[in-house]
Design goal:
Number of domains: 1
Radius of gyration: 16 Å
Number of strands: 3
Distance between the termini: 31 Å
Number of helices: 3
Shape: globular
Helix content: 25-40%
Largest sheet: 3 strands, antiparallel
Order of helices and strands: HEEEHH
Strand content: 15-25%
Length: 138
């Protein structure tokens, strides 16, 4: 379980995200790894009413740097290496790299728990859209 602490700007962030209005409940279950200077969290995502997996979420954090802009290239290289490794496997689905524009939410370059909240909300919005489109097709 992850608990995030926020100041008053969270109201602006939540209003901009609009994700709190969705009526879909998702369960996240996973493991955290430390690989050198990287912290990687990997988990499966399923609707709360079903065991059918709807996605795999991976969060990558480069621990030595708290500047979003400075860490950007290092994280992009990590993601590219991961995509390359996945491309050699014949796995179903697709790998999406979702990176919100933190400036839209009034967040600074110094990474905080509010950046994490925006990332999680953005990923959840993508997963909710996927779950809802699957419900429409069935």
């Amino acid at each position: 379980q992850i608990v995030l602490e926020a100041d008053l700007t969270i109201q602006t962030i939540m209003e901009k995200l609009q994700s709190y209005k969705s009526r879909v409940a998702l369960n996240f279950e996973g493991i955290q790894y430390r690989v050198g200077d990287f912290q990687v969290r990997v988990g499966k995502v399923a609707p709360s009413y079903s065991e059918t997996m709807r996605g795999i979420i991976m969060e990558v954090e480069y621990l030595p740097i708290s500047s979003v802009l400075t860490a950007k290239q290092i994280l992009e290289d990590f993601v590219d290496a991961w995509k390359d490794a996945l491309s050699k496997k014949s796995l179903p689905g697709q790998f999406l790299h979702i990176e919100p524009n933190f400036g839209e939410y009034g967040l600074s370059d110094h990474y905080t728990s509010q950046h994490t909240a925006v990332q999680y909300a953005t990923v959840m919005a993508q997963l909710i859209a996927t779950v809802q489109s699957a419900q429409v097709r069935t």
